């Protein structure tokens, strides 16, 4: 197999970027389709909250340790294995759907594997970019990646709604297998420089735990940084399960269908894009803490008002979802 190794950094970067764009879009489509499937089958807020926690909690638990692991292993191989495991997990649902009903435990198990795979894949991709891209081009490439994520979030809900109305859930999930395969193939053909280890110690759980503790010491050394990180983590931990209930609110409380649920998701995604652009132009308050606090208050107020809406106020819910999207980028960016 001939690897793409070029003095022009754009060739390997965009080769990976295109493969990851396909994989990201199919993964986002599957994420929405699974939530709508669980809404249809169970009509249970508890199940949706548990599914959301399963989908995101492993990333939060593993996050403090994954950075140390990635620094000590081949980042390209980690991404390929992560994509491969996600593809195999998705294939299990496809096969189960071919032979009968898809058991709930299998869906939850696949969500767990997808979350663990993403927990390793996303920081590996972020760590690979500086190895391929010149330092003066990193901001531009970060903009490309942010645009890709925003476009994926905007396109995936309507695409998922159309497919959900026409295909079986197992057929939709097969798209994720294809997307992951494309991601693995593009990675396989790209040469990624290896990083020279500054430490010669043997790779072990103890050494990775030592690196993790070093990171925590850095957080403690800067006044306010550790509490800010904990508050932000608590914010995302609280919001993610609520966000998973949006389809249930649309389909059960407002009595509408998956197409209407996709409108809510698109409104939130468009709001995120507007919020990101607005924050880039405005820059936020001089005291960045104030920007984060304002965002939390906006998100909280929009959620409270959404909970008080009558069943005839779906359009108001769409508008409030857009407001939540506008407020969302004002937490991670200043942080």
Radius of gyration: 21 Å
- Protein structure class: mainly alpha
Percent range for β-strand residues: under 5%
Order of helices and strands: HHHHHHHHHHHH
Number of strands: 0
Task: Give the overall silhouette.
Answer: globular
| Head-to-tail CA distance between termini | 42 Å
Number of helices: 12
Biggest sheet character: none
Describe the secondary structure blueprint for this structure.
Layout: H1 10-42, H2 45-71, H3 75-98, H4 104-132, H5 138-166, H6 169-188, H7 205-221, H8 225-244, H9 246-253, H10 258-282, H11 288-307, H12 314-327
Report on this structure.
The chain is an all-alpha fold. The chain is built from twelve helices and no strands. α3 runs antiparallel to α6 (169-188), α10 runs parallel beside α12 and α11 packs antiparallel against α12. The longest helix is centred in the first third of the chain and has 33 residues, at 10-42. The model has no long low-confidence stretch (mean pLDDT 81).
Summarize, please.
Helix content is 79%, strand content 0%. By secondary structure, the protein is mainly α.
